[in-house]
Model the fold of this input.
Amino acid sequence: MMRGISRLYWSLVLICFAFAPIVEASSVRLKELARIEGVRENSLFGYGLVVGLAGTGDTHRSKATLQSIANTLQQFGISLDSDEIASRNVAAVTLTAKLPPFANSGDMIDVNVSSMGDARSLVGGTLLLAPLKAVNGKIYAVAQGQVSVGGFSYDLNGNVVQKNHPTVGVIPSGASVERGLSTDLVGADGHINVILNQPDFTTASRIKNAINKTLGPGKARAVHAGKISVVAPAGEYDLVDYLTRIENSVIEPDRIATVVVNERTGTVVAGGDVTIDNVTISHGNIKVVISTDYQVSQPVFVREPGRGVSTVVVPDTSIDIEESVAEPVRLSSGASIADLVTALRQIKTSTRDVITILQLIKTAGALHAQLVIQ
Done:
């Protein structure tokens, strides 16, 4: 069974690598490779209370929860000391959200809810009205609503049944934006900056040329590998239309030859442009088998055997060493990873050994690619 699974796995790997050499770099729009400086999300955070829990909330050990309940009741004219409150239906939670760019007052955003105390579950809870602040301390949204939890936890007499994380939930569209963010797309120098997702000198140069071809000569300048500065429009174009022309410019991005190796799953992924120099690989294994048989030594049965005479268990250990002959693999200059995998498959090399061999080829300087090990 395992041999069949291994054969299937290697077949899939070889199919993937076999098609890799014929894949060419495709042209994509600039908006898939870069973003306009200033267009980004902003993190919001807050603190609140989730009520309506069925006895799965914070215990009396969570003093902050009891104090928060007392403070909330005081807003409704009910004065109680935190020591006078005993409830397992309330949980203190932290709130996190992302304020998207160009958000306006009245927009709805999702809110993540996470327990802070010793609550067992947030299933069935409702978040009370809570403000969401940015890092500058200003309130940008308010959150409230039913908490949706993708799990559960039930216990009785010390027996616990749990699925996923019942102390973390989400409120879809649970926060209303109260204050939008002003996004400055044009800098003080009158330029719009295009920021690459993956900085690369060749790609930056191609982006500059593509923008100059679209907008006119001299409009764009590559500042460095991750930034292109574009002259802002001088009234002849609306800013939105101007940015639309920029982000829809067609680019053929350059890429670094990379081999990605995941040691935990034994997965190797490589592009078709990865090549290997002249290299010889010798692969062999040593198999050691230690087996022990236990023999029973019985004394001669006589009527009076005497003192110290008894049955004895005698171990009989044997050690066998089996060393397979090292099978060499030779690859000529310009060979691809697909050629290497095919050759190693012929000598029945395991996936783990392939990963080790790739690391050694890289160390030897014969692998012309960046080796990323996860």
About this structure: The longest helix spans residues 2-19. The longest strand covers residues 286-297.
